Each structure stands twice: as C-alpha cells, then as structure tokens.
Amino acid sequence: MIKLTIGVDVSKDTLDVHLHPAGDHRQFSNDPRGFRSIVRWIAARPVARLVFEATGPYHRAFERAMGEAGLPLCKVNPRQAKRFGEALGQLAKTDRMDAGMLARFGALLEPDVRPAPSKIISDLKDLHVARTALIKDRTAAKNREKNLTSPLLRRQIRQRLSSIESHLKEVETAIRVLIDRDESLRRKIAILVSIPGIAERSASALLIDMPELGTLAAQEAAALSGTAPLTRQSGKWAGKAFVSGGRVNVRKALYMPALVAARFNPDLKEKYICLTSRGKPPKVALTAVMRKLIILANALIRDDRDWSPERA
C-alpha cells in the first residue's frame, strides 16, 4: 500500500490538510477538536510524512497533538517551502494550494522526520520568547531614558524599567524551575556550562532553540545553527564562502559564548588566533568558533560527558 504524504497549511484559526497522492483535501479548526478530527480522518491510512511550516505560536499545539498521535512530523522552513512553490510555478496563493504544495514538497524531497518537542520544551520556548522580548524592552527603555529631560518622563521610564526587571526575574525563575524538574535537561545544562564560554542562560537558550542537540551529526549541527560555510563556484570562478540559513536564534545564542571562548577556552582560542593570523577577518574567525562550539556541545551531550581540555 502506498504511504501518504500529508501537507498541512497552518493559520491562526484553520488547518488545511491535503493528502498526496490521493488528492483528498479537508479543512479543520486549529484547536483540540480539529486535531482530533484530523487524527480520526487519517487513522486507517499509512502515512510517510506530515509536513507543515513553522508558524510560531500557531503551529505548536497542533505539532504537539500530532506527535502524541504518533504521526511522523516534518516541520519545514517557510522560506524553503516558498521557493519550492516558486519552482513548481505556483503563482497564486491560497491555504488549499499551500497544503497541496507542502504535500508535494514532502513526497519529492523527503525531509527528515523529527519528533515533536516535549511539553516542557514548548513551555520553555514560550518563557524564552518572553525573556527575549523583556530584554529588548529593557534596552529600548534605557536608550530612551538617556534622551529624556522631563522629570515626569524620567520618573515614568524608571518605573517602567523597574517593572521590566521584576518581570524578567519572574520569567528566569520559571525557566530554572522547569529545568530543575527534568533530570535530562539538568544534565544537558551541566554539560554545556562545563564548556568555557557557555553560561547558564546561553545553555538554556541553546537547548530551547535546538532541542535536537546530542542527536545530530557534526555537519547537521553546524547547518541547523546556521554556522556551516556555504561555497559558491561556477567554472573557474570561485566566490567567497558565506553562512546563511539555519536557526537565527541559535546563532544569536552562540555569539556571546563564542566571544568569551575565543579568549578563555584554550582550544577555541587557538582556533581563533590561527585564523586571524592567516588574515581571516575577525567576524569570519568568530563564526568558525561558533561552529566548533555547537559541534562540541552536540558531541558532549551525545556522549554524556563534561568538557575537558585533553578530550575536547
């Protein structure tokens, strides 16, 4: 029996579901009732992949429900899906057409099947997003404060900063409490902070935004983090290598640890100095440190061991 590839276009209120190659299409509500209806509809059918785009808060509950139902999930980058649709010559755009396009994307390209994040990772993700937003608000408020001359406005902005700091402490406490409840997460955090350059906040950010750490090949870890060099070459022409794609938040989470590691981690400091002494720009050398850092983190979690200079 031919296995089906299911494409799902996720929006705030609805889920458009297309079965390939059968061609069946239905629309469901994006809520627990709709999730149950989808599972009942496809229960007796063999499924190779269920493909959907990452759409922030709209896809998370759906992803968790489909994972709990035991379906093989493929969460794809919206940019990749868009380019695939353009390659097919799909100019018009409707939810129904997008669901069909995602089903064909899965059938032709066979993206990797990955399990849905656990509930604790999903909860940590929400808290991490809130923490990032609060930090941005704090930076913006501090910048505004510098330019204020009105005593009233200065008092208000200080009150705002005090409120932000209070909320930030509450969110960070909630993150620590969730991590402390999970033995596996506690161990992974301990491994990451054993690496010179990675502090607890960066460690939690990496695990939240890249929960696959410890299960990937080295090149996969570099690619997912957006630190793998991409080459450009045609005939005799060879362009400069560059980095692109991957998970932006992971790359951001690696930046400060890489800066610290380039100074204080003996192995990565040597790598940074070697590259800059050969004429590589500091930014390129730092990206290489970020790449080695995520590959190292992945390997240590995979092997369940702390960092040590003689084995790194």
Automatic annotation (TrEMBL):
GO terms for biological process: DNA transposition. It comes from the Bacteria. It holds the Pfam family DEDD_Tnp_IS110. Residues 191-272 form the Transposase IS116/IS110/IS902 C-terminal domain. InterPro entries: Transp_IS110-like_N (IPR002525), Transpos_IS110 (IPR047650), Transposase_20 (IPR003346). One of its GO terms (molecular function) is DNA binding. Residues 6-146 form the Transposase IS110-like N-terminal domain. This is IS110 family transposase. It comes from Hyphomonas adhaerens.
